[in-house]
Amino acid sequence: EDQVTQSPEALRLQEGESSSLNCSYTVSGLRGLFWYRQDPGKGPEFLFTLYSAGEEKEKERLKATLTKKESFLHITAPKPEDSATYLCAVFYGGSQGNLIFGKGTKLSVKP
Amino acid sequence: NAGVTQTPKFQVLKTGQSMTLQCAQDMNHNSMYWYRQDPGMGLRLIYYSASEGTTDKGEVPNGYNVSRLNKREFSLRLESAAPSQTSVYFCASSVSGRETQYFGPGTRLLVL
Q1: Using the beta-carbon criterion (under 8 Å), do A46 and B105 form an inter-chain contact?
Q2: Separation of alpha carbons B41 and B69, rounded Å
Q3: Average pLDDT, stretch B87-111?
Q4: CA distances (Å), B37 to each of A53, A54, A62, A70, A75, in order?
Q5: Cα–Cα–Cα angle for B104, B105, B109, nearest 5°?
Q6: Fewer Cβ within 10 Å of end Cβ, chain A: N or C?
Q7: DSSP label at B85?
């Protein structure tokens, strides 16, 4: 069964304490992996798209990496404003309907 | 650019009532999508439209219908609302299927 699993479900960090979020997937024919940030009561906000193993992308304190089985979202020296739920989504196969979202990791950064 | 807009923002329905959720995008995107988001379930695809004039079922299409009115607009209709359809509904659009999807602010629907 095609699946996308995010871990941990929730993560509490102190300001400045770096960490990583994981997104593992079991799909055939990966065509793209997306990371989104979602704040309470709002729609997901796009962060990164990764297309092939070995690819990395960075934006401010965030860095996304991709292997053949998983992706990591590394957060360096987080600030309270980085608190949000981070969603991973995998696009695979030949149909445009083949997009699976993980359940997300809720990140809290305390000052 | 407004991006993806959705109306209404919040709606309360009684069981059996019908309603249409509206979505519009001003990014000249070809593909549009409707998702629902429930606690503990993540985002699930209801219907999508790969291009103007086409629509296809996603993971959870039962109880819903869609219309791709033109390239900009994609509506979702609940013909006879049920409490199980209480959820937050998101519309999204992308240049094409493989490209990044951009989401609207959501519609919060409560069915009593």
Answers
A1: no
A2: 29
A3: 93
A4: 29, 31, 25, 23, 25
A5: 110
A6: N
A7: G
Instruction: Report CA Rg, chain A.
Output: 14
With an 8 Å Cβ cutoff, is B98 touching chain A? yes
CB contact B50 to A (< 8 Å) = yes
> Nearest-CA residue of chain B relative to A89?
B43
Beta bridge partners of B94: B31
Of B4-8, B41-45, B84-88, the range with the lowest mean pLDDT is B41-45
Is B41 touching A (CB cutoff 8 A)? yes
| CA closest to A43 among chain B residues | B105
Tokens of B25: 């995008």
Contact B51, A90 (CB under 8 A): no
Give A93's contacts (C-beta < 8 A, 6+ positions apart): A27, A28, A29, A31
Q: Which of A47, A91, A99 to mutate to test the interface with B (most CBs of B within 10 A)?
A: A99
Token pair recorded at residue B37: 């988001």
Q: What angle do CA A47, B36, A73 make, to 5 degrees?
A: 25
Respond yes or no on whether the N-terminal peptide bond of residue B8 is cis (omega within 30° of 0).
yes
Tokens representing B44? 């699930």
Q: Pick from A94, A88, A3: which is nearest to A50 by CA? A: A88
The 10s digit of each residue's pLDDT in A56-103 is 999 999 999 999 999 999 999 999 999 999 999 999 887 777 889 999
> What is each CA distance from A46 to A38, A49, A87, B78, in whole angstroms?
9, 8, 9, 28
